[in-house]
Amino acid sequence: MRVVIAEDNALLREGLVLLLTSAGHDVVAVAGSGPEVVPALLQHRPDVAVLDVRMPPGFRDEGLRAALEARERLPGLPVLVLSQYVEETYAGELLGDGTSGIGYLLKDRVGRIDEFLDALERVAAGGTALDPEVVAELLTRRKNSPLDSLTPREREVLSLMAEGHDNATIARTLVVTERAVHKHIGNVFLKLGLPPSDSGHRRVLAVLAYLAHTPQA
């Protein structure tokens, strides 16, 4: 898998390069500032991009802006964004276009190597990988919405769906049958007003887009 990394912290950047190359991936380019990101992506057209949210020169949202621009110019480009903190606005912007191949992880997750590599591969394959802490923030901050009607089990299922897990993994995690998971997912879609026949990555992205745009109280 060909990867472009955009991260201004030299230590973390080199750590990511070492981690990915050791896992058998090809890091085709690295960028240390916002203006370098889009040209690198356009030149190399990687299988997936790993981008920091805040980069020089302003250390605000240069990495995110580069990710959004790159996805406009390279439709479908898988992007895994890394952030130091849960920044709901950034997650919402990234998820707002409703397309596939999106990930948003906290940097602490990189240290959990298996989880990070699994998330990267899911994103590269067109799936989603949303950090559990980000999911929790999105769920708990929403008030006076259809989310309030979900049962505790349905919220657990929705959280795991949002993280990008398939039905089999959700069933193993919750120690229930896949049939039970399928039923819970149907209830979630019914309560959120989403098409019950939706399946695969599209259904997960629909839920994420819904969460990202549900007004806060």
Explain how this protein is built.
By secondary structure, the protein is α/β, with parallel strands linked by helices. The protein is built from ten helices and six strands, in the order E-H-E-H-E-H-E-H-E-H-E-H-H-H-H-H. It has helices spanning 10-22, 34-44, 62-73, 88-95, 113-124, 132-141, 152-162, 167-174, 178-192, 200-213; strands spanning 2-6, 26-31, 48-52, 79-83, 102-106, 128-130. A six-stranded parallel sheet has the order 2-1-3-4-5-6, with helices on both faces. The longest helix has 15 residues, at 178-192. The protein is globular, with a radius of gyration of 17 Å. The N and C termini lie far apart (42 Å). InterPro entries: CheY-like_superfamily, NreC/VraR/RcsB-like_REC, Sig_transdc_resp-reg_C-effctor, Sig_transdc_resp-reg_receiver, Tscrpt_reg_LuxR_C, WalR-like. Residues 143-214 form the HTH luxR-type domain. Keywords: DNA-binding, Phosphoprotein, Transcription, Transcription regulation.
| Stretches with pLDDT under 50, minimum 5 residues | none
| Main sheet: strands, sense, barrel | 6 strands, parallel
What is the first-to-last residue Cα distance?
42 Å
Structural class: alpha/beta
Strand order of the largest sheet: 2-1-3-4-5-6
Kindly estimate the percentage of residues that lie in beta strands according to DSSP. 5-15%
Instruction: Using the alpha-carbon principal axes, give the shape.
Output: globular
Rg over C-alpha atoms, rounded to the nearest angstrom: 17 Å
Order of helices and strands: EHEHEHEHEHEHHHHH
Helix content: 40-55%
How many H/I helical runs? Answer: 10
Pfam family, one: Response_reg
Protein name: Response regulator transcription factor
Domain HTH luxR-type: 143-214
Keywords: DNA-binding, Phosphoprotein, Transcription, Transcription regulation
